[in-house]
Amino acid sequence: MAEARKFQAIKGVRDILPPESALWNRVEQMAREVFETYGFGEIRLPIFEQTELFARSVGSETDIVSKEMYQFSSNPQFEDLRDARAQALRIFDSVARSSSQPLPGFFVASVREYVELIETKVNSGLLELNKEIEERLSSLKSVLSEAETEDEQKFWLDLRIKTELLKLSEDFALRPEATASVVRAYIEHGMHTLPGNVKLYYIGPMFRRERPQKGRYRQFYQIGAEVLGRADHPRIDAEVIEMLVRFFNSVGLTGTTRYINSIGCKQCRPKYVERLRAELVKVKDKLGADSQRRIETNPLRVLDSKLPNEQEMIATLPRIADHLCEDCKKHYAELRAQLALRGIAYEENWRLVRGLDYYMRTTFEIVAPGLGSQNAVCGGGRYDGLVELLGGPPTKGIGFAIGTDRLILSLQDRSLQDRALQEAASRDSAAAATSGSAALATTSLDVYVAWMGEKAYPTAMKTARMLREAGLRVELPASDAKLGKSLGLADKLGARHAVIIGENEVASGEFMVKVLADSEQRKVRDEELVGHLKGARNV
Ligand code: ATP
Ligand code: MG
């Protein structure tokens, strides 16, 4: 017999239950409405993509790509082939990067090993090659057979390219973010030929292998938007931020702080990064292990550090604002002017660099109260050049992602506080019971159909159907109960009304309608029921 076993959701992954899920729906619906007034349309994206898409766009040195992605292979039984190929390519790249020496023989050996592994599998019938792959295999073998060639450089390069092309299993990753997918889709569907800027929004889950804590999950949700096209006027950046402010206002998230910064472009940032690196090297001993590593891999990320003992030192580092090129300076100044024109308050934060490689110029982050150290509810910025990096035409882009989990947490935190305050202010007043936060309203039932006796059921069923067709939220119990018990349950479920249907009511076509909050009751005729209950809902 199977062992009885209790299952639990995986660590860092959670269920969103009613009534909280209703709040999620309202928030997402509000995003749709606000974003659509700014001309955005929804894009529904796949949950997984080629790993390479994220490695290229987000950047292979970022935390997201280097350690946070959930990956799997398209062909799990050929993972050894995938590893053998990756090994050969890795040897080539590391040697090619670190020296000008001719590559050692073990690169050739690793490629041979890969080819032999494929052939063993083919010979034993485990693997069947299609025509294209067969051609790639024989083309790689023919390069291998010319090992003693004159032009060594060409030989190595050829070998690398042919090895790369001979791919039998692909790597996929659950998406850790969605900008890369939006850009992929933009290119794939030739959206650059559309008139004007292309404005897209998405809503859905993202996946990152992180240490779970409040406001940080392994499956979390984002609401994001992107503007792609030829124009990069700072008015676009300001309008995107304005749209965010409108959205946050409309869901009732107040007290946010909006941070902005410019992190320069291809012209000015590399010089700044070198200066920063030079300064960091001087104080290396005073830095923690993460920051020490980042001096090499990604010095900008050191500015992101939250370690208390690094703060004093970071405050003395050179600031990018002093190193922007003329064009970036102008773009940033105009962004600030545009925000002022729109009456949007902001704070400049020179340490706001964002963790993804693709950002340039404008970056911004919105921080909300009530979230402890996971307080960023939205991050975004400009990413001109990302489309080109992924093989598309020259294109400008800007976008953001809102962390829905954190937004909801902040709204809940606030409404619980509001409610506590209100209840304290009017402890005995009846208002306290029905007020509270509009966002968190839990009453979701209009009518409980309390029927008694099997003969009443067909009428109860038809009545429930009629009320539901009229748009009311109705609970029809599957079996009957004594009136007192039914009304008790109706009350617990938060229903506003109970419609009582017994055999007498079936015969007379007149039902008893009870208001649960104050026990008021009256008889209502079948044909007046909808009008009566809907009228009552609107008061
Ligand atoms: P953080 O610095 O908090 O790790 P991030 O820079 O990794 O954030 P982005 O990749 O810019 O975040 O994602 C945008 C938003 O998505 C964040 O501001 C945050 O609200 C949310 N977010 C990111 N990672 C998580 C997570 N693991 N759990 C919940 N929300 C998240
Ligand atoms: Mg993060």
Quick overview:
The protein has helices spanning 20-37, 51-58, 63-67, 79-98, 105-123, 131-144, 152-165, 179-188, 234-251, 269-282, 289-297, 308-314, 326-341, 386-389, 404-425, 431-434, 457-469, 483-492, 503-508, 529-537, and strands at residues 41-42, 48-50, 71-73, 171-174, 198-207, 219-229, 257-262, 347-348, 360-367, 376-382, 396-403, 447-451, 474-475, 497-501, 510-515, 521-525. With 539 residues, the protein is of the alpha+beta class. The two termini are 58 Å apart.
Description of the structure:
This protein has helices spanning 20-37, 51-58, 63-67, 79-98, 105-123, 131-144, 152-165, 179-188, 234-251, 269-282, 289-297, 308-314, 326-341, 386-389, 404-425, 431-434, 457-469, 483-492, 503-508, 529-537; strands at residues 41-42, 48-50, 71-73, 171-174, 198-207, 219-229, 257-262, 347-348, 360-367, 376-382, 396-403, 447-451, 474-475, 497-501, 510-515, 521-525. It has 539 residues and is of the alpha+beta class. The strands form 3 sheets. An 8-stranded mixed sheet has the order 1-5-6-11-10-9-7-8, with helices on both faces. The longest helix has 22 residues, at 404-425. Residues 177, 208, 210, 215-217, 220, 222, 355, 374, 376-379, 401, 403, 405-406 line the site of adenosine-5'-triphosphate. Adenosine-5'-triphosphate (ATP) is lined by residues 177, 208, 210, 215-217, 220, 222, 355, 374, 376-379, 401, 403, 405-406.
